[in-house]
Amino acid sequence: MKFNLFAAEEQAIEKARALGEALAVVAPDCVSDFEALVDAFQRSTREQRRLVRVSDRLQAQLGTANQELERRRLEAETALEHLREAQEAIIQAEKLASLGALVAGVAHEINTPVGIAVSCASHLADATARLKRLSDEGAVSRGDFSRYLATAGDTTDLILANCQRAAQLIAGFKQVAVDRASAERRRFNLGTYIQETLVSLQPKLRPLGHTVSVLCPPDLELDGYPGVLSQILANLVMNALTHAFPNGRVGLMAIEVEQPDSDWVRLRFSDNGQGMVEENRARVFEPFFTTRRGHGGSGLGLHIVHNLVIGALKGSITVESAVDQGTRFVLLFPRQTPERD
Questions:
Q1: Is the dihedral angle over the CA atoms 274, 275, 280, 285 positive or is it negative?
Q2: Which candidate among 3, 24, 74, 89 keeps its CA 20 to 30 Å from the CA of 202?
C-alpha cells in the first residue's frame, strides 16, 4: 500500500512537470512559482519515504524488543515457580523439624514418669519376692505382712499416678501431632492446648533455664485449627531462643491471652531479650530474612507464622521491639475460624 501511494505521487509529479512546460508557453510569469511548488511536493515525498523507512526500522526493533521481553517474562515466571517450589519444600522441612522436636520433647517428658513407674514396680517385685520367700518358709509375721501391704499401697499409688501422667502426655502428644500433620478443624481449650504445646519445647527451654509463663482464661474454647496455633507458638518460642537470648543468657517469655470481645482472641507473646533495631523489626516477616544466617536461623520461622496467622487463622499479627527492651508479638484472630476457601 505504501509503495502504491508513492507511485501515485511520482505520477503526479511527472504530470506536474508536463503541466509546467505547458504553463511556460501560456503563462511564463507563473512558471517559477509553480516549479517551487513542485519541488516542495518532491521534498515532502522524500521526507515521507524517509519517515516510512524509520518507522519500519523502529517496528522491527520493537518486534525484537517484544520478543526479548516475552522471553525474559517466561524466564522470570519459570524462576518464580522454581522459587515457590523451593520455598514450599523448605517450609515442609521446617514443619517436619517442628514435629520432630515435638516427638523428642514428649519422649523426654515421658521418660520421668515411666522411669519412676519402673522403679516402683521393681521395688514392689522385690518386696513381693521377699514375702513369698517368707511364706514358703512359713516365717511370715504380722509385721512382715503389714510392711508389705504399706509398701504395696505406696508403690501402686506411685505407679498408677505416673502411668496416668505418661498416658496424659502421650494423649496430648498424639493430639498435637495429629493436629499438625492433618490440620483438621475441631473445638479445643486454648489454655490446655498451649500447655501441651510447651511440653514439646521443654528440652530446648530447660537446659539453659528459660521459662515460659502462661496467662489464659481457663474456660476459653476455640473452634478452629489447633495444629496451626501449635506451630505458631512453637515457631515464636524457637525464634526467641535463637535471636533474643545470645551468649547463654537466661530468658523469660510470656504468653498472655485475652478476649477484646466474645468473638475475638488477642494473644501476646513477649520476651525480655535483646530486642531488635527498627530496620530488622520492619523485615521480620520477610521470607529468608534472618540475622543468624549459619547460626540456627533459616529466615522462615516468622514468615511461616505470618502466613499461618493471616491465611489459616484469618487474623492479624504485629510486632513491637526495641534494643534491650525485648520483643512482643500481638496476634488477633477470631475465636471461631471462618471456613477456608
A1: positive
A2: 89
Conformation bin of residue 247: beta by default, left when phi > 0, alpha when psi is -120 to 50:
left
Q: How confident is the model at residue 102 (pLDDT cuts 50, 70, 90)?
A: low
User: What is the H or E stretch that residue 253 is in?
Assistant: strand 252-261
More confident residue, 143 or 93: 143
Q: Where are the domains of the chain?
A: 2-76, 186-341
101-140 burial, b at 16+ Cβ within 10 Å, e below that, comes to bbeebbeebbeebbebbeebbebbeebeeebeeeeeeeee
- pTM higher than 0.70: no
pLDDT in tens, 56-83: 888 888 888 888 888 888 888 888 888 7
Strand partners, 189: 221
pLDDT per residue over 225-274, tens digit each?
888 898 899 889 988 888 888 777 888 999 999 999 999 999 999 999 88
How far apart CA 205 and CA 254 sit, in angstroms, is: 13
d(CA 315, CA 309): 5
CB 237 within 8 A of CB 254: no
Residue 141 has a CB neighbour count (10 Å cut-off) of 9
Label residue 276 left, alpha or beta by phi (over 0 means left) and psi (-120 to 50 means alpha). Answer: beta
Cα 225 from Cα 178, distance rounded (Å): 11
Q: Is there a contact between 315 and 330 (Cβ–Cβ < 8 Å)?
A: no
Element (H, E) at 178: helix 142-182
**Domain 186-341 annotated CATH 3.30.565.10:** yes
On the 0-12 / 13-18 / 19+ scale of CB atoms within 10 A, 146 is exposed
Within a 10 A sphere around the Cβ of 307, how many other Cβ atoms?
15
Q: What are the cell numbers at 73?
A: 517474562
